[in-house]
From TrEMBL:
It comes from the Bacteria. Coiled coil: none annotated. It comes from Paracoccus methylovorus. This is DUF1153 domain-containing protein. Pfam families: DUF1153 (PF06627).
């Protein structure tokens, strides 16, 4: 097996003991569901991707990524669900 050399980390250990790798990241053109959003936020938070790399790779706006990150940090994965936006939106 050959591994492509990449700058930075290839894997990170999450607090629950699971390992997040570059292969675990969602494809750039996917439908965004809460679990995929959480994976991208975790990848940035734990250093697998930089914030700018994530924004560029997935075609996000800075505001969109920051909203995901803030919602996930405050309320967990459920706050990333589109159906829950009103419930977790800040006043």
């Amino acid at each position: 097996m050959f591994l492509k050399k990449t700058p930075g980390l290839r894997t990170v250990m999450l607090p629950d003991g699971s390992v997040l790798t570059l292969a675990d990241l969602p494809e750039p053109q996917v439908r965004w569901v809460a679990s995929r959003k959480a994976t991208v936020v975790d990848a940035v938070h734990y250093g697998l991707l930089t914030r700018d790399e994530a924004i560029r790779r997935y075609g996000l706006t800075e505001e969109e990524f920051d909203a995901w990150s803030s919602a996930f940090r405050r309320h967990g994965r459920d706050a990333l669900k589109v159906t829950q936006l009103q419930r977790f939106r800040q006043p």
